[in-house]
Design brief:
It contains ten helices and 13 strands. By secondary structure, the chain is of the alpha/beta class. A six-stranded mixed sheet has the order 10-9-8-13-11-12, with helices on both faces. A four-stranded parallel sheet has the order 2-1-6-7, sandwiched between helices. Helix 4 packs antiparallel against helix 5 and helix 8 crosses helix 9. The structure holds heptadecanoic acid. The site of heptadecanoic acid has 21 residues, from strand 5, strand 8 and helix 10.
Length: 275
């Protein structure tokens, strides 16, 4: 049996046409914890965190959670959130080795997205596409790494509080946001860490700067996947801007799940694209 698996930072809980599993990360405070699975009420979670002043954090899936997801399959394709910011990839690799020692005939390809959300989605879609073309496990494993080099991830955030509080971004960078309507436009570095690209005053400026930076990065009308935190308007504006310049492109947008909405925070947006 062939399975496709992503952690919950990919923001998708089902994938029609293939056997797909989402492996959840978890979010917690001293009082409550949230599993980022299909039963999570994302709005309730967001509202809880917006009123919560104490510590909060996240945790990657356990090795056991990956093993449970692998169960029953002998050809497995996994995509994870960047190893530059999360232990998720490592935990999947440990599970892979354990699963293969129990099932020596099994083949498992674990891809570190070096990104999150829409970057994971693009990789997952490509793996499904390659498999549907009849490619072997070895071919998919090789081609997906080449494809990863053709991807870029951008994000526009109105607050970096949760990223800074959890040590994922420099506190100095974070403190400049959240005032004067400032939005940070960032990108995933080659190593899968956070890199600041520009500071934009207001959302209108963010829209134009994002499109300009995508073009500078080599975007020429390829696929785009977006996730947003209650900000369909921003997502639509970027989509309209891209369509004006590039015509009919393959683009879609979904609401962020638990993990991405915690870190991207209210009104944040994450954009994955092919260059
Ligand atoms: O293992 C864990 O606890 C998860 C930690 C995840 C930390 C970062 C998540 C970021 C989500 C924010 C903007 C996108 C940045 C991606 C750059 C590679 C969304």
């Amino acid at each position: 049996m062939i399975k496709f698996i992503a952690d919950s930072a990919a923001d998708i809980k089902e994938y029609p046409g293939v056997i797909f599993e989402s492996v959840p990360l978890t979010l917690s405070t001293d009082e409550r914890s949230f599993v980022d699975d299909k039963d999570l009420d994302v709005y309730e979670m967001q509202s809880y965190f917006s009123k919560h002043n104490g510590r909060s954090g996240t945790a990657c899936p356990s090795t056991q959670a990956w093993l449970d997801a692998f169960e029953g399959a002998d050809e497995i394709y996994v995509v994870t959130i960047t190893s530059g910011l999360s232990g998720t990839y490592n935990s999947a690799i440990v599970a892979k080795d354990m699963y293969i020692s129990k099932h020596p005939e099994a083949k498992i390809c674990v891809v570190d997205s070096l990104a999150t959300g829409p970057g994971e989605v693009l990789l997952l879609e490509k793996m499904v596409e390659l498999k549907n073309e009849g490619k072997t496990f070895e071919e998919v494993s090789e081609e997906i790494l080449k494809y990863r080099e053709s991807l870029r991830l951008f994000f526009g955030l109105a607050s970096l509080h949760n990223l800074a509080q959890n040590g994922r971004v420099n506190k100095l960078v974070a403190s400049a946001v959240g005032i004067m309507n400032i939005r940070i436009l960032g990108t995933a570095s080659k190593e899968g860490t956070i890199e600041q690209v520009a500071k934009c005053r207001g959302e209108k400026k963010l829209i134009q700067t994002t499109i300009d930076e995508m073009k500078k990065a080599g975007y020429k009308g390829g696929k785009v996947r977006i996730c947003h935190v209650n900000n369909k308007a921003l997502s639509d504006a970027i989509e309209d801007g891209l369509k004006k310049e590039f015509g009919a492109i393959d683009i879609n947008s979904i609401p962020a799940g638990g993990l991405c909405s915690f870190y991207a925070e209210q009104s944040g947006i994450i954009i994955g694209c092919e260059k």
